[in-house]
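CORE FACILITY INTAKE
Project code: CF-77B
Contact: R.S. (postdoc)
Sample description: multi-component assembly, two entities in total
Requested service: structural model of the whole complex
Turnaround: standard
Below are the sequence entries exactly as provided by the requester. Do not edit them.
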Amino acid sequence: MAEHSSRAADVLVIGGGIIGCSIAWRLAQAGMKVTVLDRAEPGGEASSAAGGMLAPLGEMLEPRTFSELCVASRNLYPRFAAEIEESSGHHAGYRSDGSLMVALDEKIERELGEIQRVQTAQGYSLDPLTPGEIQGRGADLSPHVRGGLFIPEDHWVDNERLMRALLIACQRAGVRLEAGCAVHKFNLTGDRIDSVVEENDTRYTAKTYVLAAGCWSGKIAEGLGIKVPVAPCCGQMMEFEVERELPFVVRSGMHYLVPRPGRRLLVGATSEHTGFEKTVTANGLLSLMEGAVRIAPMVGKALFLRAWAGLRPDTVDHLPILGYGEIENLTFATGHFRNGILLAPVTAEIIADLIVKGFTSRPIEVYRPTRFK
Amino acid sequence: MAEHSSRAADVLVIGGGIIGCSIAWRLAQAGMKVTVLDRAEPGGEASSAAGGMLAPLGEMLEPRTFSELCVASRNLYPRFAAEIEESSGHHAGYRSDGSLMVALDEKIERELGEIQRVQTAQGYSLDPLTPGEIQGRGADLSPHVRGGLFIPEDHWVDNERLMRALLIACQRAGVRLEAGCAVHKFNLTGDRIDSVVEENDTRYTAKTYVLAAGCWSGKIAEGLGIKVPVAPCCGQMMEFEVERELPFVVRSGMHYLVPRPGRRLLVGATSEHTGFEKTVTANGLLSLMEGAVRIAPMVGKALFLRAWAGLRPDTVDHLPILGYGEIENLTFATGHFRNGILLAPVTAEIIADLIVKGFTSRPIEVYRPTRFK
């Protein structure tokens, strides 16, 4: 079939998740003509499946520069969410009530102690709490909680709402969102992309291209002869209706409980490298519920609402891929693994700066797309 | 509001589940004009929520006459299902591959021995199997299975399909099915019902009435000044897609695994007297999955499809309520508790005989509606 039409833009973003749309929105705000192509529905994958924690602390993120990137993005979040709300006229469900990490065994108790020591030394605010103090905060947790670390600056967002609001903000800013547009082929001249062709043979041209296709980025980059080692890491999640709302996010090990409006409670998440299938399994549900009930026995009586899975875009070193690589007019914004929601504001800033100004003041050398060679 | 219309029939059946519809179908086959009223969608409650096991053996059902009623109904089933298939032109998913009860602990092992002893003495066929023999039957169960009892004559049916086929058979036989008709009031003359009025004030008259409203029967009977102690007993269920189909039903204690077409597997069931709410809870799901994985570890990898709950109509003595009581022209067919699917054919025969012939050859004295006084 012949390529049957051609649509020109300043920037073409491949991938309509929170990363691609945040970039598109910032570029449109800067006066650029932007098109976003999504293989299915914009916002329909990991961006909506996630738990929405904005919690860079409480984990030992390596290297230090990555930890700083995460904290920087969290610091951008209140303004980012407010701007999206203002532009869209929709609530983004931003919450700044903090996050509590709890230890139910000695191993995690030791880890929390170490996290507190290191991150306090770095100047962050983490409050160690005794079991009694935790009960005093009204979270109705297990009597077996041995202690915890409250992180007042770790926030969270209703990422489904945020994503919907962001899509509206994009449209209002003039971004063209194209659903059901899977990239099929690139037309290149030397080291420059001339156009991309989607599966129905519509051709899209732009001056600059952004690859922000989450775990599908590797497959798409194959069409450019580039190796981008992004692999899907499946996360299973559940949602319940609880009798009494949790006052903040509660985490322990791999399990987290995130309050949502209407006494809903998200329980996450498994981590499975099982390919592109988004599968909810008995073992996954068992692990989530056993973990949740262990942290907060009241979850046992909670009403089950739904279970789902999403695919995090993981990389070999678990760090994102940001900036220009071998193709002159292609910038990468992918591989955000477990931090896609958190890193959206800073990624949008970095990529928009690279495209609009030609540089970013953030140190992004460690995230360069050519590092996997 | 005035009662604004009147629809006459020979028999009015209150309740459009498998019991009510089976009775209506048999009466229509006998040439009667039958109307079925359902408070919501016919077949939409326990009849579709159930697991569909037709397994009167392997449990110590008391009294002996009840056990015999269950076996009698199971013996009617192949013909009953075939007739529904023929009348409706739809498959009912009837399966006669038997059922396996397994013991994973000493207590259940002893129980199975006792069941085998008693039921074999009663002339039933139950085959004790060693762990090796069980593995040889290709069911891929836990290596911790200590032994089992295979019951070749315990069958099962896809009750959702059966119910859909039965509704079509009813319609083809001329039964009038009225959805969304909650009974609001009875008009009585002495000990006879003249008419029933549903919530939108439509009046229905008939010569004879049948109360087959499952766990809602007690509430409805209040309108007659009669006490019918039927209480909802909530059962939570799950459905998975497994890699390899189970060759037969497998049971252990409260847990059962029922194969369905398309490598689906039903896992049931909890028993909770928690009122009329059909709630799926974290504790319920945990119990189902822990039980299922304990019986067949392969279920752990199975894909979760859905979870739901249904309300079994339980009675004080856990026996059904059948036949005429204080109201001359009202016959009861309710309170089938965990045996509604199984008992549909024999219940339909009994009630149709009572209405058409004026008597039944089955001993139903123990199920009389007046026994609760």
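Facility notes:
- DSSP finds nine helices and 19 strands in chain B.
- The longest helix of chain B spans residues 64-88.
Invoice: internal transfer
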